[in-house]
Write a structure and sequence with these properties.
Blueprint lengths: L2 H13 L2 H7 L4 H15 L4 E4 L2 E4 L1 H28 L4 E7 L4 H15 L3 E7 L2 H10 L4 E4 L8 E16 L20 E2 L6 H8 L17 H9 L4 E5 L7 H4 L2 E5 L6 E9 L5 H13 L6 E2 L2
Parallel strand pairs: 3-4, 3-5, 7-8
Antiparallel strand pairs: 1-2, 5-10, 6-8, 6-9, 6-10, 6-11
Helix pairs in contact: 1-2, 1-4, 2-3, 5-10
């Protein structure tokens, strides 16, 4: 048994057809069929039931193919680790980002990744801070871009940038008559917030008056895009981080904005990773790539 055999049986399980499986594996159908029959004889079990109606994976075949997929993934990880040892900037990095960062930051650096780090590939996952941190600790994720510093002893972080908060509101709102704005200018029942679990909600609350904790539950949203559209429909006002202000959406939606003058109306963004993570050079290179693509609306942290 070898990895090629595992590729064959996984392909047949995926395509439910020997011809299409052989095409996907870039071999002839007789070669693939003969190798699978040989594997079945070695194992002493039938992996696939063949009939004029098609192919069905047997119960034992389903169990073996599940293990085969795990073995192939492990083999790929071994190759990636070996490649990284030869070239620290080669191989895949799994990157997690919180939802209030991912759609605004990724476009700023992803286009440059292939040019400046041609041997590095990236997989992305968007989730809330708590779940991304858990995935970092378990090793499921390599790195994560978060808006809070690491609290676990096994994690550390690189400071990327600091971004101010902006207050957005409809053009007809009374805040439009002000030259500048602070949270003292916002009515208690006017502020819209993200749902619990989002660190940006907690950061917004930190500069709100205590009464804002009693904000209408029905108008809390799970994304900045939803909040922005609620504001555009006249449901209130909300806070937006600086990177999310890029583009012409505010004028398109009939919105105006003020950069908040409140002390502490900003957040720091971190690239977080495990202290024992072996590919530190890759993490450092990615951090520099991200910093190089940041706009002037945020403060670079060297």
């Amino acid at each position: 048994m070898n990895l090629r055999d595992l590729d064959y049986i996984c392909a047949v399980a995926d395509h439910k057809h020997f011809g299409r499986a052989a095409e996907a594996c870039h071999v002839s159908q007789p070669t693939l069929s003969g190798q699978i029959k040989k594997l079945e004889r070695q194992l002493g079990v039938t992996l696939f039931e063949r009939s004029h109606k098609g192919i069905r994976v047997t119960d034992i075949g389903t169990e073996i193919i599940m293990i085969a997929r795990e073995a192939r993934d492990a083999a790929r990880r071994i190759k990636s680790v070996a490649a990284s040892a030869q070239d620290p900037l080669a191989g895949n990095l799994s990157l997690g980002l919180i939802p209030t960062i991912a759609p605004y930051l990724i476009p700023l650096f992803v286009g440059k990744l292939g040019k400046k780090l041609p041997n590095m590939s990236m997989t992305y996952r968007e989730d809330i801070t708590e779940r991304l941190t858990e995935s970092l600790l378990s090793g499921e994720l390599d790195i994560a871009i978060l808006a809070t510093p690491p609290e676990e002893d096994t994690l550390t972080a690189i400071d990327l940038y600091s971004e101010p908060f902006w207050l957005i509101f409809p053009k007809s709102h009374e805040l439009g008559s002000l030259d500048a704005a602070s949270m003292d200018d916002v009515k208690e029942d006017d502020i819209l917030l993200l749902t619990e679990g989002h660190c940006f909600r907690d950061q917004a609350l930190s500069i709100c008056r205590p009464a804002h904790h009693r904000r209408r539950q029905s108008l809390r949203a799970t994304s900045l895009e939803t909040l922005i559209n609620l504001v555009a429909s006249g449901q209130g006002v909300t806070l937006v981080p600086a990177l999310a202000m890029r583009g012409g959406w505010s004028s398109d939606l009939g919105l105006k904005s003020h950069k908040l003058t409140d002390k502490g109306a900003a957040r720091k963004i971190y690239l977080t990773y495990r202290k024992r993570f072996p590919r530190i050079k890759a993490v450092m290179a990615l951090a520099e790539l991200i910093k190089d693509g940041l706009p002037n609306s945020v403060t670079h942290i060297s």
